[in-house]
Amino acid sequence: MTTELLTAFFMWCTIINFALLMISFVLMTLAKEWIYKIHSRWFNLSKENFDTVLYCFLGAYKLLVWVFCIIPWIALSIIG
Q1: What is the pLDDT of residue 80?
Q2: In total, how many domains does the chain have?
Q3: Distance between CA atoms of 30 and 34, rounded to whole angstroms?
């Protein structure tokens, strides 16, 4: 694999993952009650716990995108 191919790969991974992160954020912001109703059927969560779980999910996902997509893309862009 060439450096250019890996750079393009990580660039597209970053774009796709950020799009998914933004979609998740919009859905959690606009349709939180609907999502809570669906998940409260499966799990016994209070609304406060549900908010905490969503906040932790979005934070962990953002951190993982940074560590596994954005930082390698930046490093490969510097090398290339």
Answers
A1: 85
A2: 1
A3: 9
